[in-house]
Structures are given as C-alpha cells and as structure tokens.
Amino acid sequence: MADSTEVSNRPVVPLPNSFQRTPAELAKLKDMTIRNGWVKVMKARLVREELRECYYREGVNHYEKCGDLARYYMKLIREDRKVGPIVVDFN
C-alpha cells in the first residue's frame, strides 16, 4: 500500500478564487474533464483508423507516405498517457 506521505504524480488543477465550489459546479467540472478525455481518445482512434487505411493503401511505400501520420498518432498516444485523473485543489 502507498504511504500517506507520498506525493501524488497526478496533475493538480488550481481553481480561481472567484470559482463557487458548489457540488453542482464540481460535478460539471468533472463531467467536462471526462468529456475532454473522451474527445482525445476518439481523436486518437480516428487517426489510428486513418493510419491503418494508409498502410493498406500504400503497400510497400507506407514508410514514406504514412510516416507523418504515424508520428502524429504516437504524439497523441503519449499525450493521453500523461493526462490521467485530475485532482482538484481546494486550497
């Protein structure tokens, strides 16, 4: 089990001082965060499908023709792994 003194690696989202911290607004913030995460996942899925089609369409030349798309897909995957669950800072 993790020690209670360990520092979390998850990103912290500071809230502005003027933000009203009602349960309804916190629920909206959570929904917005989840929605943004799903948008990133679906974008990566669409790029993956396009990359797969490019690979089959180009055949032996897929390294030259699909290289930029493959690098973009890898960039999207790496960014999604960094996000993780977001912790809201109440201090």
Automatic annotation (TrEMBL):
Spell out the InterPro entries in the cross-references. NDUFB10 (IPR039993)
**Which keywords describe this protein according to UniProt?**
Electron transport, Membrane, Mitochondrion, Mitochondrion inner membrane, Respiratory chain, Transport, Ubiquinone
Any keyword Ligase?
A: no
- Major location, coarse class? mitochondrion
Q: Where in the cell is it found?
A: Mitochondrion inner membrane
Q: Which GO terms describe its cellular component?
A: mitochondrial inner membrane
Entry superkingdom: Eukaryota
Q: How does it sit in the membrane?
A: Peripheral membrane protein
Please give the PANTHER family that the UniProt record associates with this protein.
NADH DEHYDROGENASE [UBIQUINONE] 1 BETA SUBCOMPLEX SUBUNIT 10, NADH-UBIQUINONE OXIDOREDUCTASE PDSW SUBUNIT
What protein does this entry describe? NADH-ubiquinone oxidoreductase subunit, mitochondrial
* Species, as recorded: Neolecta irregularis (strain DAH-3)
